[in-house]
Amino acid sequence: MMQQQQAEAPLPNKTDASSSLATSAVVAAGAAMLASSLQAQTTTVTDVTLLNYALLLEQLEANFYTQGLRRFSSSDFNNGSFSQNLGNTSDFYGDSITGDVYGNLLLIRNHEQTHVRTLERTIRSLGGTPRTNCNGFSFTYNTVDEFLAVGKLLEDTGVSAYAGALNMLRDPQLVTTAATIATVEGRHAAYLRLITGDSPFPAAFDPTKTMQEILSAAAPFLGSCTV
């Protein structure tokens, strides 16, 4: 879960990317609007509604990786600050990571694009209409380190989204489809956490979040795209 825009406006730094965005007036207004629009939906959520919700998040991630990997090259990632800790035996996380980070991110991008296509096909098989892919997503980063920080945030958010929505699906086959996507999203999150020096397994259980909570958290990245 395509044509992309060039990244714009820098993040202050990777550690406070989400907090600085979340405190802006624009984000607050957007989050309130999203919560309001979903309030009426929650009493009549269908499997198609949930799959389109997942599709929005997969489109967001697919757009993010496609855009960033067009902007940055493999050498850019090799020269990133994060890469200085890869293979560093004094660093608890990332010390055993080897290989081409850019190549691995390309694989993650391919996974997200596959998730998008799978969800679109599934929605059509149920007689529903997949949401249209939007070119108006907005991502803010200037360096590969900031790009990875945003990616880590998106992947963690995606894991919480699937964890919170799986029990709402009514068709058992759809639960299996969504669960097999969710576990891969968890692998993506673990990889991004590992290469950026965070624990790939921070807790025994992943947090679950509601649709309102997830869409509020995603508001800074939705840009001109509608829910």
List keywords for this structure.
disordered N terminus, 227 residues, 8 helices, globular, mainly alpha, Ferritin, 59% helix, single chain
Can you walk me through this structure?
- This protein has one domain: Up-down Bundle (Ferritin).
- It is globular, with a radius of gyration of 17 Å.
- Helices cover 59% and strands 0% of the residues.
- The chain is mainly α.
- Helix 3 packs antiparallel against helix 5 (101-125), helix 6 runs antiparallel to helix 7 (172-195) and helix 6 runs antiparallel to helix 8.
Overall 3D form:
globular
As a whole number of angstroms, the C-alpha radius of gyration is 17 Å
Derived from helix and strand composition plus strand pairing, the structural class reads mainly alpha
- The DSSP helix count reads 8
State the domain count.
1
In percent terms, what proportion of residues is strand? Answer: under 5%
Order of helices and strands: HHHHHHHH
Which spans of ≥5 residues are poorly predicted at pLDDT below 50? 1-42
CATH class label:
Mainly Alpha
Overall pLDDT score: 83
CATH topology: Ferritin
Helix content: 55-70%
